Amino acid sequence: MGSTSRGGFFGAISQLFKEENTAIRPPYAVADTTFEECKSCTALCVNVCEEKIIRTDSMGVPFLDFSANGCSDCHKCLEACIPNVLNDPQRFIGAKARISTLSCMSHHNTICFSCKEPCMDNAIVFEGMFRPIIIPDKCTGCGYCISVCPSSAITISA
Ligand code: SF4
Ligand code: SF4
Ligand code: SF4
What we know:
Layout: H1 3-22, H2 44-48, E1 54-56, E2 62-64, H3 76-80, E3 96-99, E4 124-127, E5 130-134, E6 154-157
Antiparallel strand pairs: 1-2, 3-6, 4-5
One iron/sulfur cluster is lined by residues 26-27, 48-51, 53-54, 71-77.
């Protein structure tokens, strides 16, 4: 194997590893699922998602893409998942959002409340008019705050 193909092989493995470790999986996933069934499923959840936020990775495993929208907790993916990977209505998205104080305009004295309005769980609190933070215990990981931030200061991780 030449160095180029070796680089390609290790690059692909590294990409897969990265996908698996950073991906936010859909809500309602049953405890301890490995999402193995998803690899041979026609991604039923992707087609029914009313917010169009479910995508599949290179192995066919679904993840959430919050770049344009958030999860409305509509249960459509749960109802569509015939293999019952998504089958626990009590388990929502296993992720929490965070605000980067370096990137957030409000942490640099510019008035901005863009993230506050879509947060139905009141997880984002401001110190007066400035310096918002996200209360982890209140954040459901719904993702609606991500795309509305004009300075891309909010990230979400599992
Ligand atoms: S419908 Fe269920 S089994 Fe199919 S890809 Fe989605 S989560 Fe996986
Ligand atoms: S609950 Fe609804 S909006 Fe959320 S991922 Fe499932 S289908 Fe999409
Ligand atoms: S992910 Fe949802 S609950 Fe968490 S801070 Fe953002 S909008 Fe609020």
